[in-house]
Amino acid sequence: LQIVESGGGLVQPGGSLRLSCAASGFILEYHPIGWFRQAPGKEREGVSCISRTGLTLNYLHSVKGRFTISRDSAKNTVYLQMDSLHPEDTAIYYCATRPAYYSCSNYSSYFTSWGQGTQVTVSS
What we know:
The protein is an all-beta fold and 124 residues long. It has no helices and eleven strands.
């Protein structure tokens, strides 16, 4: 079971990035997939999650209307589209999953498999 994030980088405020979470060794759509982020000196926080049924949840008020989670089952990949980025969105973004019989959650401790993370830096 492997998860690999990609798509991070340096972007100016107001810009966009699309993060990808590619899975191997398991069928991604059968599991809840969460995006988390961790800024320097801060705790890891849940950003968004997509359930097995396709229900999408955004956990941060600061990203509602700007971040969109989606899934491409054919590519076994989950995406996080991030628009109107703010400097406060700077963090390492992680993708994670938990066993299929569980639901989405914003608690990182509930997720058992993690990718290595991808750095997102929003700066002029």
